[in-house]
Amino acid sequence: MQPGKSSVSPSTAVVPFWRNVKIIGVIAQFVFVIALVAGIGILVNNVVTALAKANLPADFSFLGKPAGIPIAERAIPYQVTDTYARALVIGFLNTLKIAVVGVVLATVIGVFMGVMRLSSNWLVRTMASVYVEVLRNIPLAVQIVFWYSAVLLPFPPRISDPIALPGGLIMSNVGLAFPFLYPTYRFGVWVPYLIAAAVLACVAWWWRRRALAKADRVGSVWPFPVVTFLVVAGLGLGLSYLGRSVPSDLTFTFEADRGRGTTAFVVDGKSRPAAFVPVAIEIEKASLTVSSQNLVESRQDVRGSVRFPLMSEREADAFEFTFADAAAAEERGLQLSFDKYPSVATIYVDRNGNGKLDAGEDVDPATNRGYGGVDVVMTVTNFRRTLVSDRDGQVRTPTFKHIDEAAAAVEESAAPRAGTRFSAFGQAATATVSESALTAKTEIQPVGALVLSRAYVPVSNYEGGMRLTVNYLALLLALVVYTSSFIAEIVRGGILAVPKGQREAARAIGLSGVQTFSLIIFPQAMRIVLPPMISQYLNLTKNSSLASLAGYAELFVIASVVSNQTGAAIPIALLLIGAYLAISLAFSVVLNQVNARLALVER
Amino acid sequence: MSDAASAPAPVRADAPPTGQRIIEIEGLNKWYGEFHVLRDIHLSVNRGEVVVVIGPSGSGKSTLIRCINRLEEHQQGKIVVDGVELTDDVRAIDQIRRETGMVFQSFNLFPHLTVLDNITLAPTRVRRWKKSKAEERARFFLEKVGIPEQAHKYPGQLSGGQQQRVAIARSLTMEPKVMLFDEPTSALDPEVIGEVLQVMVNLAKEGMTMVVVTHEMGFAREVGDRVVFMDAGQIVEVGSPEHFFTNPKEARTRSFLSKIL
Amino acid sequence: MIPPRPAPVKAHGFRFWLRKNLFNGPFNSALTLVAAVVAAWSLYNLGNFIFVEGSWGQVWRNMRLFGVYRYPVEHLWRPLLALGMMLGLMGVMAGAAGRKSIVAGAFLPIQGFVAVVSAVAVIFWPSVRFLWPAALALGFIGYFVGRRWPRAVKYLSWGWGAWLVVGYLLLSGFTAGGALGRVPVRDWGGFLLTLILFTGIIPSFPIGIALALGRNSKLPAIKYFCIGFIEVVRGAPLIMWLFIASLLLPLILNVDANSLPAIMRAYVAITLFSAAYMAENVRGGLQAVPRGQGEAARALGLSAWQTTLLIVLPQALRAVIPAIVGQAIGLFKDTSLVFIVGLVDFFKVGDIVSVQPEALLVTGGVKLEVFLFIAVIYFFFAYRMSIASRQLEKRLGVGER
């Protein structure tokens, strides 16, 4: 104790370093870093020796080699001979494709369900609760498999008898196809207008804000740039349709009897596929033969079903249907009943003579099954269809056969009489039509900057339009439904978190119930809700890595295939981690922006 | 201080030379980043003395007493508590914290422990007392602060005044040589301030060394030996309570007192 | 002074309820009708499928695969004993917490489930006729021990630790043959494997807490290591970590790939993944503890470690119990991803069962039945946990000031 004595001199007492709080911290970190470096060193050493022993690649040179992986689903052109790098890029794009669409749909459904959960209507509220509780408590993997292999694969109609809705939407177990706008080779004409539109929109935005500020007025700013952009861009699009003509180097080659064609630019004898070119095809007279089938569809027996490629009645002047072996058919009393004219029919025997298919008339009493294996010939007159070639310049039509009428007449007279054993198989009729080549009139149509491509089913898959595979749909459905159940909970919590006083104040100034919700409660709830919602979006994106369960080729699926093929586990692991970190980082940047903005608004 | 030459000499708040020094602060300076919160503080406290620190909010008075048990680290100067200098030495820090009790504005009782466990925790873990001894002392101090019947309740079940009295008992059970009070009544409802102040008055009368940051002038007048007025990180004026309430010297002091009295 | 009068009689009864909840106004009435049609249609189809169209024989015949996959029948007493021990430990927790506690509220339905399975076993499955009821009984014994001696809870963390070890030894066996003969891990599967992987959350607890404390540390080296670990692990999906672990773990540890069974690799991946999420949850709790708590503890003379362990952590963990239960639900569902490393868990058994020859004989396959069954079982447990989480949230939110 030193009474009264005072000195400002800093402490001179020497503190042993192991008791000095500051030095202890430094030592602890030092030890930690050494241990960490040593640990990582040992592990890396292990990996290097193991890789050397197994002779596996440890660098990224494999990326430049041809991949040999077939990928059905792709946003950019790709061939099996392309590199691993390109395959991985396609996987990444596929991840984005499912994530972006999934996020939008999940938000819509999730917000809807969240609001429904707070409905004053007991039934609606309960149903929404059941939706949320059931879906978020079942593993996503189970849901994907459920939608994919238990629902979407077996249940919708097969591609041979798809559901075609007005507007060009086609659904089947192969997937969904619908009309879609694609950029054509004339898209470049539009680009200057788009740039101009963007620039002018910025100018309009700036001008409007300045005008408002000058007049010291409150007003909406956004309509001005938006309208400007739409007007200028629309003008440019319209102009791109003026003065259009088909370039002289654009060619279309079509093999009518294979039903395949290619649009291409031919310059100096070198041909380059031309994407999204509309072509009109006209076939004067042709035939198409199919066999009737007995099948099980959506767990139900479909008997004696005759399925021609999906066509519309208006695509030809006339359709005629005959049995390939007319005599045998007549002897058995076979008739056609159309479910969907002119594509799908059922073979039956009109036992009660009322001229239509009644229950049981499609069953052959001899076999107790349907009338399967009967060939039916469709003859079309003046078939015409305007198609848009796909990204690789390919066009497909049904594989019609040429009808050699003279030969057919000869053949018919030479054919065995009806009732003999051979004719039952209908071989005689088919033999006549495939000899000479089918011809077609084709014409390349002029286009503007965009072209509307419709979807068709020429043989056993979709062509044209936008096609979503059943794999994509199953994964999308599962991800959307699963994520929406979480979003619904977030939205519900957000709405409940808006202070009660807000509702009371809104009612007190005379707003109606709907106005209170849409103007006061919902905007505030959205503010609370956005940050957790964005983390759900990130979850959805990461969860898309379960795509292999639905056979969809996204980043992780392709990466694991590449890893299995090349053995380059380490580089692939690094690439994957990098890709997912980049995605996470992008989301957290967005999240920070949103948070910053919300905080700013609140101040 | 940007201009040392023109700056007036700092006000020294020295304890009377007759007593035995228990806290000695010399030339204390502290910055938060660029902000100079404590400027050349000289303050000493004798055993058994009650020093009341007053001042407007943001004047650095809380920071000052939080430096004494190193809840805040000072950058310049010297702090000696009961003969131990506060340095980076872990042993010194631990010893000083053991010997000083602190009562906070927001009580800071541990909500997951019962009142009794709150009080016995430090004695059993730090002083290594037997559980039975710690409990016996705890009950003694609970009795002293007037709430012996609440021993098995959780803090959340008590009123603010009761919680603060438990907090005082918690500190006292460690048998500290100095008690630091950081605005102990500021978070309390007006009707319960009295019960806490009464405990503090009793404590002061029993001869406990206390450094009290407070706005309760009644308390200062009744038991304060010295009053220290701080503003803008400096000690502006020091004196007896009578001096402050009858004839403060400095303009800043007068202005402050006129606002709160 | 006006004397108090009774409130006017409140309208109630079924008609009033209908009026209030379903038909208050034309819009709501229309909504009710639409919803009723949708609900009736869904319920009809579901009922029709379950009771009329579905063919459930394939699911019923393969219950053993669903339960334990290829674990040998003569050794089934081992997983069931481990299950019984687990139920016993849960029982002690439930019993000590009291009949009306949330823990008991979660434990008793699980016992109910076990009771139903036991009843089925007694009637239909001769090989486990006595084992299931025995496991059930262990659960109840634990419950009564907990009720009788609530202080036993103190030793529970040791109990769970011991259970992990004993359970593992029981399942794997350690002798060449006989009652405790080795069962190769590739034969473990089904719901047994799902539960085993779910226990990965137990070791993830201490690791997660350590990471959270490290992330809050003042020492930059430790802090940034923890941030890096947590963010990298959380940044990528679990399925990718499982895949990477299955490829790289043998390389990293420089051991023969065959000596490190897939289940171990998956377990490591799941534990570390869960730990990263646990760390973030715990960190949320640490942030929720007021600064004054730590200061008060330090002012009393407690050391930094004592402050963390005795004051800060208990409060932090208590605040995030609901979040941790939520994470447990997530992990329970995520165990279904181990198919990627070739493990046959409960979910993967569905694939096997639905392509057996008998399954292919059924018109249209049995996938719908199989995966509906799997979904229902997952749902039962996950939903039960989410109810508990909600109750905890409510109780912690209201009870604490």
Order of helices and strands of chain B: EEEEHEEHEHHHEHEHEEHH
On the 0 to 100 scale, the average pLDDT of chain C is 89
Overall, the morphology of chain C is globular
**Cα Rg of chain C:** 25 Å
The counted number of beta strands of chain B is: 11
Range of helix content of chain C: over 70%
Q: Decide which structural class fits the backbone of chain C.
A: mainly alpha
Q: Distance N terminus to C terminus of chain C?
A: 38 Å
User: What spatial order of strands do you see in the largest sheet of chain B?
Assistant: 7-8-9-4-10-11
Strand content of chain B: 15-25%
| Strand/helix succession of chain C | HHHHHHHHHHHHHHHHHHH
Rg of chain B:
18 Å
Helical proportion of chain B, percent range: 25-40%
Number of helices of chain B: 9
Distance between the termini of chain B: 31 Å
Shape of chain B: globular
What is the subunit organization of this protein? heterotrimer
User: What does the average pLDDT of chain B come to?
Assistant: 90
- Total E-strand runs of chain C: 0
Query: Unreliable runs of chain C, pLDDT <50, ≥5 residues?
Result: none
Tally of alpha and pi helices of chain C: 19
Explain the overall architecture:
The complex is a heterotrimer of chains A (603), B (261) and C (401). Chain A is of the alpha+beta class. Chain A has helices at 21-54, 84-117, 122-136, 140-152, 187-215, 223-240, 326-332, 405-414, 427-433, 470-497, 500-508, 513-543, 555-566, 569-602; strands at 163-165, 169-172, 175-178, 180-183, 250-255, 260-267, 270-273, 278-291, 293-297, 300-307, 318-323, 334-340, 344-349, 363-364, 369-370, 375-388, 394-396, 401-402, 441-444, 450-453, 466-469. The longest helix of chain A is centred in the N-terminal third of the chain and has 34 residues, at 21-54. Chain B is an alpha/beta fold. Chain B has helices at 61-68, 90-99, 115-125, 131-145, 160-173, 190-205, 217-223, 241-246, 251-260, and strands spanning 12-13, 21-32, 35-46, 50-54, 76-81, 84-85, 100-103, 178-182, 209-213, 226-231, 234-239. A six-stranded mixed beta sheet of chain B has the order 7-8-9-4-10-11, sandwiched between helices. The radius of gyration of chain B is 18 Å and the shape is globular. Chain B starts with 11 loop residues before the first strand and ends with a helix. The interface between A and C is large, with 57 and 60 residues.
